[in-house]
Amino acid sequence: MKLDHAGSCSCGAVNFRVVADSLASYRCYCSICQKATGSEFSTTVLADEADFKWTAGQESVREYRKDSGYMLAFCGVCSSPVPNQFRGMPFYSVPAGAIEGAPQIDLRVTLFKPEADVSEAGNVEVTNFDEVPSLNVMFDLLGVTAP
Ligand SMILES: [Zn+2]
Ligand SMILES: [Zn+2]
């Protein structure tokens, strides 16, 4: 069954929909993705062109291209990564984090994954919070001393 997923950038200017059976995705750990996202990896859903539709704000989309063919699309207002056409093919690269409502992301592929995935650091204890903890609790867990 196809599910209808809404997506947007952080400021809400750019909006899109993906209507698909599943959100098949890949994680890329390359240095460009690390710099572009400010994180250890990017997570991208590859959507069929037929399953993807801009619903608002396409005129706010800006693009950055590297000579290698790498292309990053982002909102010109808030700089959030937004979908872009995958290398001129009938697919859209959709940043997983731009899709609303924490959908089920179906991870299929990882690229350039380092030996030890720092995001899954197995030898470090990770504490999860479902609500924002107090700053002092955060500082304590991050090993810094509150001012
Ligand atoms: Zn925006
Ligand atoms: Zn990459």
UniProtKB/TrEMBL annotation:
Domain (CENP-V/GFA) ranges: 5-130
Pfam family, one: GFA
Keywords: Lyase, Metal-binding, Zinc
Domain of life: Bacteria
InterPro entries: CENP-V/GFA (IPR006913), Mss4-like_sf (IPR011057)
Protein's UniProt keywords contain Amino-acid biosynthesis: no
Keyword check for Transmembrane: no
Family, as annotated: Belongs to the Gfa family.
Protein name: GFA family protein
Organism: Gilvimarinus gilvus
